[in-house]
Amino acid sequence: MLYPPVYHTLLNSPVSAETQMLLPTVETMVGVLYFGLFAISFDFISGYTGYLSFGHAVFYGTGAYTVILIANGKMPLLGPGTPFMLSLLVGGLIAIALAILVGLVSFRLSGVYFAMITLGFAQVFYVFVRGWDYVANNPRDGPAVGPSHAEGFQIGVPGIDQLSLSIGVLTGDEVALLGSTLSGTEVSYYMIGLVVLACYFAMQRVIHSPFGRVMIAIRENEERAVAIGYNTYLYKLGAFAISGFFAAVAGGLFAGFKRSASPENSFYFLVTGDALLASIIGGFGTLAGSLYGHLFDETVREFLSKAGQGGGLLPYLRALLGQETLDATLFGDTTIGGLIDLLLNGHASLYVGLVFVLFVLYVPDGLLGTLRARIGGTFAEALPAKLWGDSDQ
Amino acid sequence: MILEALAEFLTLSELGGVIVNGLAKSALYVMIASGLTLIFGLMGVLNFAHGSLTMVGAYLGGLLMVVTVTSGTAPLTRLGLFFVAIVVVFALLTVLGGAIETTIIRPLYDRPPIYQILLTFGLTLVIEELVRIVLGIYDLQPLSDWQAALATKPQFLREPVSLGPVSAGWMSLFQILLGTITVVGIWAFLTKTRYGLYIRAGSEDTEMASALGIDVRQVFTVVFALGIGLAGAAGTLLMWDPTWGASVPLAAETLLPAFIVVIVGGLGTFRGTVVAALVVGMADAVTTWWFQNAIQFTGLPELVLFLVLVVTLIVRPQGLFGVEEVGGH
What we know:
The complex is a heterodimer of chains A (393) and B (329). By secondary structure, chain A is mainly α. Helices cover 66% and strands 5% of the residues of chain A. Chain A contains 18 helices and six strands. Chain A has a two-stranded antiparallel sheet with strand order 1-2. Chain A has a two-stranded antiparallel sheet with strand order 3-4. A two-stranded antiparallel ribbon of chain A has the order 5-6. Chain A is globular. In chain B, strands 1-2 form a two-stranded antiparallel sheet. Chain B has a single domain, classed as ABC transporter involved in vitamin B12 uptake, BtuC, CATH 1.10.3470. In chain B, strand 1 and strand 2 form a beta hairpin. At the A-B interface, helix 6, helix 12 and helix 16 of A face helix 5, helix 11 and helix 13 of B. Chain B: It is found in: Cell membrane. Chain B: It is a multi-pass membrane protein. Chain B: InterPro entries: ABC_transp_permease, BCAA_transport_permease. Chain B: One of its GO terms (molecular function) is transmembrane transporter activity.
């Protein structure tokens, strides 16, 4: 919650170079929030019912495209002036309908087949959207928000300006608060964070309700759940629809912040792959873990990616080592600088992949799962118990 | 408009061309998918790294050809070198596959099958980045096809040949030939050799096979290694095909059709995979023709491939020749 001010304080402190190297920028953190929500929704269906939804990106893309199409006035019945919160909801509802349609067919299968048929559906939509020139002039590059909606998308209570703030890097509202000004990106961080938090609590609520118990029962032993008398088909369908709704909200937030989307970063199956990475590193079936997993993923990526505004290891090493060290030859005509370039420049996926493989092999419960197993329960329960000396046990 | 196109489609020359094209595509699909189906049938591991290893095979094969072929090399020598390249790539990737199986897949057999999907998915990330790093050293564009490798193709494979009224490319015939060799080779290996017998026994019942004294662990390693080797051989062939070519995105381009073929055929049946490759290849060729001649929708062939998958899973969830238990974890 306190990330932007802390980040700025650190940037202006003596350890600024290290901060810039180690920590992601606020803009990246906004991405962590909305994509984290997508990863959470993926974990909601895959981690709790055990049905790997490999085509989850289709819901993310639906949300993103709905927001942009409404803003461009291309959605029937809804003009470009539709409040952003309503667009999010509409995107979510379309995703629910889609999830039920896909789910009706897909939940007749299980295991690997389920993963594959959802992947199949998602790719059908991906190819379709990529070739449909109604959504954008160049459907391969995807649509962007046009001049019919030049102002930023507002999060808050629709219709009441005082209770809404715009998001976006350039279009976000600036807010003066306690003598300092929050930039558009920082406002976006808080407003998107608010929506993500609300969605997280909603999903958390569902997981801890009787409905969620049945979802876990399906993961642990579906035959037994059927034998007790639950209609698991309906429960799976319901869970899939809920998960699809929140995935679409995440996609809508993404489109609202970035103001454009392409088939590659919304509908493509590797988008689901990123969510999968996040949930495995964070902890499969822990909900919040997915967000931390994605945070970890993004931090590593930015840390190792090429010189962005966010810094990273490469510019830091260049500045630290100095030109002479960089030009020193190691062997043949390879310089140290060349070697660093070769190994670090834009190859973050390599290291993320290695970390991922190591996690699957040695830390199957993920970050949060392992921590929870260590302290014996969730943080909210275990921490007070530790502090008050286990009085309730 | 549609009727005119249909009339044109049904003429002997057009239809024949489509059929030859379809067979060529089927041959490619069967080569891409056969390694995947062997591995899944025996071990229950859905190998997400298959596409990446096909891509590695394409680059390795291209490297061998670029190094050995000069502009003065005669066409038939080039063809001979190509077969040598396929064999070398097959051998190299078989060794690599064996190494992957023994080091990182083996610890996962007693975990839920989802972990094998996850692990091989992580493997794709690592392999693709390693390839990108190597390409970076040699200043090759990872996203576009490797032209130098394409240029090693002998001239006559680029030219059309007429079979009666039908005109087809030599390349298509060459692909059909290689696909047939692959199918016959695997079929003979599975049914005529002792090791094939072990594999079929292990696919049917792993515990019973090991109770009868078969070293199932070793069989797993061999099958995984061979499957990866086949992926590499397929990659080498794709390197010469202008619509595929050696590039990093080749990994995803081949992985998805391979999954479709394996699942439509039924996970773990070789016969099913061959039939499915024929179905998918024909569907692809027919829709490609329609896209080129009548219907203006760029994604049509891709769309139809996935629709074949979806329809098959709705009508016959276990695939054309699949058995219920296999893969239904």
